[in-house]
Every structure is written in structure tokens, then in C-alpha cells.
Amino acid sequence: MHPAPSVIIFTTLSGLGFGLLVFLGLGVPDVSGWVAFVFFAIAYGLAVGGLLASTFHLGHPERAWKAFSQWRTSWLSREGCTAVAALLVMGLYAIGPVFLGQRWGLLGWLGAALSLGTVFTTSMIYAQLRSIPRWNTWLTPVLFLSLSLAGGALLSGQISLALVLLTLAALVQLAWWKITDGALARSGTDLGTATGLGTRGAVRAFEPPHTGSNYLLREFVHVVGRKHAQKLRLIAFGLAFAVPLALLLLPFSHVFALLAVLSHVAGVVASRWLFFAQAEHVVGLYYGKR
Amino acid sequence: MTDLPEKTDRKMGLVIDLDTCVGCHACVISCKGWNTENYGAPLSDQNPYGADPSGTFLNRVHSYEVQPEQGAAQLIHFPKSCLHCEDAPCVTVCPTGASYKRVEDGIVLVNESDCIGCGLCAWSCPYGARELDLAEGVMKKCTLCVDRIYNDNLPEVDRVPSCVRTCPAGARHFGDLGDPGSAVSKLVAERGGMDLMPEMGTKPVNKYLPPRPKDRIDDQIDILAPLLAPVAEEPKGFIAWLDKALEKL
Ligand code: SF4
Ligand code: SF4
Ligand code: SF4
């Protein structure tokens, strides 16, 4: 898949923002006044910023409101609805700690659940697609949720929680890479089933429909070299998990904490880039590109 | 709503004959011609006369080579457009309800005034049957020429999809695949019509007819062949002497 900056920014930032909102909703850290305000501002900045970035790749962003209508079947629509509900509930909840020095537990729990739900619905947009075997696994939501929670714990300054959640997310990331690497081969879809000619012999793409490029090739056929991808995985893993874990194990300092957050975000961006760039859409088979 | 209908009254679709398609691309051109002028936004081209032209098409023709275990390879031309799937993932993923499947005839369409151009439907289609038009920012796909097949302003012979009407090889057939008695259903039954990527669970309505085995030259080329067989394998007498003498020179 084409690794479009808008979707990478969207999934990374909103994942982090809603991850932080989960913790704020649960009252971890238990802050009030200005400190609470700053925490909520960061969470909203990330979540809303990410959602806005996602509208950049739309052909008609002015009609985006129509996307709230099809929640019965569409994960994208469900994501929009859940995101707005989470932001509204958490906005209401924020009034308590920021202005009144109060914590409305139930509302916070609801907001946290909706925030987590938003990350889940985002991941399902990708995980539901059978046409992209690498994404089409229950591990994809697990990956998105574990990354979002690890990032949230890191942002909310919960060192011991962050250590546990980062380790968990690191393991899920490794498992996701390991398992999805053979997903296209395991799916049983190849040029033979794509053309229905596989039973007659070895099928080879002889001539593409056009000499030039087209939307399908630009959007769905992105080929990353194996070596290049391995290197990027190493970088993503180091930045997202290894470096922050090491920094958190050092004696606490605000500089180290900030560095841990920045490194984690950079690592998640790299991992997301690979998430898209390495995803093989089966339409590539028709073009002999798999 | 983007719920798929439980069942459709009819299953209108195409049957494409891979045996007779000659790969002339006439259907590609006629499809683009008809659909750029009629239903919905035009099918734009980007940089059409430049070094790197590209554009929106609803139908494209690939060519594949099939190499059997034994014998000669076969070249197969392979037109591909929307298969109007019964279990169309492109419809259920659409967040706006712009994509829908019609109850009356099963045609999958896009309501362009609702489409936000998010592209998710094209992501979900395993066949590459949907293309986002770069100029209009909306999703385009084969309409089964919905503006021809019911169009009383056209002579009856033209009330079929543009690609079907144009195909010079008669490789494209149009009809109701839900009616076992229809001409297309009979054709599919007779020729072993197949689904593309059945493992994707999309249940395509369009069917492909596999290529038939080509004629083969077995042992005898012609009934006259025995009479034309060379009479003398090794030259004798004067001819043999001449042959040898010439070879020596
Ligand atoms: S071929 Fe693709 S676009 Fe057409 S109905 Fe099936 S999934 Fe949808
Ligand atoms: S591109 Fe248009 S038709 Fe396709 S899913 Fe998005 S809104 Fe629906
Ligand atoms: S039925 Fe119409 S829109 Fe579909 S491929 Fe044929 S000409 Fe194009």
C-alpha cells in the first residue's frame, strides 16, 4: 500500500492522543487545575490533530460529516462516531479536574472506554480487509491497542506502567511482524486464483493493460526491498521500545522522559510506515507485482 | 444504508469469454467513451499527452501467459471490470452510504454526491475494480451501463452495456445470472464459467469462461500427407555420385 503521510500521521497521533485520554479518564495521574489542563490539551491536540490529518487524503473533505451515517456496517463510520463521542465525553469530564477540582469517576470510565474503542475501531478499518492479507488478522487490533496504551502510559508519566506496557507492545509488534510476513502466501490467493487460470499451468503476467501507471498501481502496489525493510524494522523497534525502556530504567529526569516520548513517537511512525508500505494488496497480483 | 440486500430480484452481470477475447481493447475504449459522457462525473486523464499519461478507466484488459506442464504456452487476454459481487465488501466498508447494491438488479453503484473520496472501497475490492478520479475526487466504477440497459431512448439493440455492444469478437455477454434459464446462465453452465478469487468470499456475479483447448497437430497433418512423403531417403546411382562430387568441391 502507498504509505501516505496523512494516514501515518493520523493513526500515530490519534493513537497516542486517545491512549493518553484513556489514562486521564481513569484518573491516572490524578491531576487538577493547570496541570490537568496541560494534560488534556496535549491529549486533545494529538487526537484532534490526527483526526484532522486523516481528512487531508479525502477527495471531498467538506462532505466528511456524511461519514457518521453508516455505523451499522462500516468500521470507518464507527470510528468517526466513537471518536466524536470520546472527545465529547472526555471534554465534559475534563471540566471536573480542570475547573472544579473534582473527579467524576463514572464519566471518566465511560470516556476511557470510548477512547480505547476509538483506537479499536481505527484498527478494524485495516484488519477487516481481506484484500490485504497482512492486515487481515486479529493481531492488528491487538497491535494498535497495545501501542496506544504504551504511548498513553508514557505520556501520562506512569513509569512503572509504561515499562510493562512498552514491553508488552514490543512483544506484540515482534509477533505481528513474524506472523504477518507469510500472510499473503497463507491466504491461498495468487495469480492462479486471481485469473482462474491456475489449474491450467503456471500463470505469468505477460502485458499490463496500459504502458503508463494508474491509480491502482500508485495506491496499492508499493514494493519495499526486503533488506531495506529489515533495517527499518530494526530502527522502528529500537526507537519505539528499546530506547524508551532504557531511558525509563535510568534515574528519573524530565529530560529523559521527554526523550523517551519523542523516541517512542518516532519509532511508531517508522513502524506505521512499514505497516502500510509492506502491506500487499492482492490487486498487485493482476499486475504481476507480487 | 450500506447494508447489502438479503437478495436481489435479478443478478445482472457480464460473462466474459477468455476463449474468444482477442485483446483488442475495444471494450476499454467504448467503456471510457460512453461513461465519460454519461452517468456521473467524467473519467479524467492526467497528463494525457505528456511523458507520463494516466487516467481513470472502468475496464482494463490484461494479458497473461499460461504455461502448462506439457505443450505450448497459451496467451490469454483478460478484461477486468467490476464483478458486481453479491457479498460486495466495497459496499459495507463505505462510511457515507455512497456505495450501494441495488435490490432490483444487483448492480453496485456509487452515489457521487455522497462520496467523500476516502478510497476505502477501492482498498476493499480485491479485483482493482474501483478507481478514484483524480480530477473529481470521487470513486468511479463500472455501472453495468445502467444508463443504457434501461434507456428507452436507445434502439433496442443498443440497450446492452457499451463494452458488450462494441466487442468485435463477441467475447462479452450480458444478462441475468440469477435466472438459470437465461442465455448467460446456460452459457456459464455449458462452458464451466468460473469465479475470480472465490476464496475472497465476495461471490462475484460476473463469470469468466475458461479458454478451450487449442486445436493440436497430432500425427497426421493432412489426409494427403502420406502421398507427399519423400520417396527416396538416400540418393542412389548418378544422383549419389553427383551429390558426393558436389560435396567434395
Ligand atoms: S468487483 Fe470490487 S467494486 Fe465490484 S462489487 Fe466486487 S468488490 Fe465491489
Ligand atoms: S470513496 Fe466514496 S464510495 Fe468509496 S468508501 Fe469512501 S465515501 Fe464510500
Ligand atoms: S458495463 Fe459499461 S461501465 Fe461496465 S465495463 Fe462495460 S462499458 Fe464499462
Automatic annotation (TrEMBL), chain A:
Swiss-Prot/TrEMBL GO biological process terms: anaerobic electron transport chain
Species per Swiss-Prot/TrEMBL record:
Ruegeria marina
For this UniProt record, give its keywords in alphabetical order, as a comma-separated list: Membrane, Transmembrane, Transmembrane helix
**Transmembrane annotation, as ranges:** 7-28, 34-59, 80-100, 106-126, 161-177, 232-250, 256-275
Q: Origin, by domain of life?
A: Bacteria
Tell me the classification of the organism that encodes this protein.
Bacteria, Pseudomonadati, Pseudomonadota, Alphaproteobacteria, Rhodobacterales
**Which GO MF terms does the UniProt record name?**
dimethyl sulfoxide reductase activity
Keyword Membrane in record: yes
What InterPro entries does the record tag this protein with?
Answer: DmsC
Mind telling me which Pfam families this protein's record contains? DmsC
What is the designated name of this protein?
A: DMSO reductase anchor subunit
UniProtKB/TrEMBL annotation, chain B:
Claim: Hydrolase is one of the keywords in the record: no
Q: Which UniProt keywords apply?
A: 4Fe-4S, Iron, Iron-sulfur, Metal-binding
Gene Ontology molecular function, alphabetical: 4 iron, 4 sulfur cluster binding; metal ion binding
Q: Does the keyword Iron-sulfur apply?
A: yes
Question: Which domain of life does this protein belong to?
Answer: Bacteria
Q: Which residues form the 4Fe-4S ferredoxin-type domain?
A: 12-42, 73-105, 106-135
The record's annotation in Pfam families points to: Fer4_11 (PF13247)
Name of the molecule in the record: Fe-S-cluster-containing dehydrogenase component
